Amino acid sequence: MCIRDRFPTCIHMDREHVYVSDTGNNRVLELTEKGRILRKFGSGNPGFWDGMLENAGFNAPRGLAVAENYLYVADSGNHAIRRINLFSGEIDTMMGTGNAGRQVVSGQTALREIDLMMPIGLAADGPNLYITMAGMNQIWRLDLKSNHVSWLSGSGQHGLTNGRSSRAAFATPMGIALHQKSAFVVDADSSAVREVNLDSGEVRTKTGRGTFTFGREDGGRTQALMQFPTDACLSANREQLWIADTFNNCLRLMDISSGQITTPAIEHEFHEPTCVRCHDRKLWIADTNAHTIVCVHLADRACEPFNIIETGIG
What we know:
The chain is 0% helix and 45% strand. It has 314 residues and is mostly beta strands. The radius of gyration is 18 Å and the shape is globular. It starts with a strand and ends in a 5-residue tail after the last strand.
C-alpha cells in the first residue's frame, strides 16, 4: 500500500537505506531504496519524549545526518537535537530542553540544559555535527566525541554581513553542505548562499544581494536572484551546488568557484521543494507542499515519484 507522507522536508541516504523526515506526521521513516518502510521513528503525534521506535515523540523533525551508527535529527518544533540508534531503534535527546531560547553556548554547559531556537540543517563530518540555528541566525558545531558544543559563526543579528565569525550576520540559515574546509549555508531570508570557513568561522557571500531581496534571475552574484531557498547539496562532480529554490518552485545550480547561478530544465512542476540530495546518479527532492519525494535522473532529467510503500505483516 502506497502512503503519502505529510510535508516531507529532508532526505538522507546511507548505505542501503533512505531516511525521510515526515515532518507533518512528526516522525522519521527508514526506507529501502525501493520505498518500502522498514521502521518508523516517532509516534506520529507531536511530543517530546524518548523511547524505542514509535514509542517516542518528535515535533516537526527536519534536518538529518548520520554519524557512525546514529541518525541525528533536528527536531525543530522541540528546539532540540535528537539521535536514533540505528542498531536498536532507541531514540534519545542529544541536546536541548524542549524550550526555545537564545543561550550563549559554552563547552562546559550540559547539552540537555541548553535552550536552542529552531535548529534546521545538519551536516556530519568525522566527529563534528554542524547545525544551522535558524532562529538564532548562527552556525554551531557539536563534537560528538567529547559532547561539547561550540558556536562557529554568526553574531546572532539578522542580516547579510560578511567577515569574521563574530561580525557576520545570517538571515534564517537553513540548509548546509560541507565541502573541504568550507560549509555552504543556504540563507533563506536573504535568498543567498554563504560560505563559512570551518576553521575560522569567517563568512563570505557566494550569491545573494540582501535580506528580502528576491526574484528569479540567472547570472553572477550581482545579477542572480532566488526566492527563499532552503537547502543545497554538492553535485556528483563536487564542483557545483544544487539548490532547492523553494518559493520559485524550482531547482537552481550554482558553480562553487564563480557563484554563477543557472536554472536547469527539469520537466516537473514542483510545489515548494525544501530538500535536494544527489545520490546514485539521481537527484532526490522533498517536494514539500506536494507531499511527495521526486527523483530526477541526471542522465536525461527524467522525473519519477519515489513512492513510499507500507507492507502488511504476515
